[in-house]
Amino acid sequence: MGVSGSGKSTVGRALADRLGVPFFEGDEFHSEANVQSMSAGIALTDVDRAPWVAAMAAGLNARAIGDGDEGRGGFFGVLACSALTRSVREALRLQLQPPCTFVHLVVDRQTVQSRLDGRAGHFMKSTLCDSQFAALQEPEDALRVKADRPVSEIVDQLLRQLRSHKE
Question: Full-prediction pTM beyond 0.90?
Answer without folding.
Answer: no
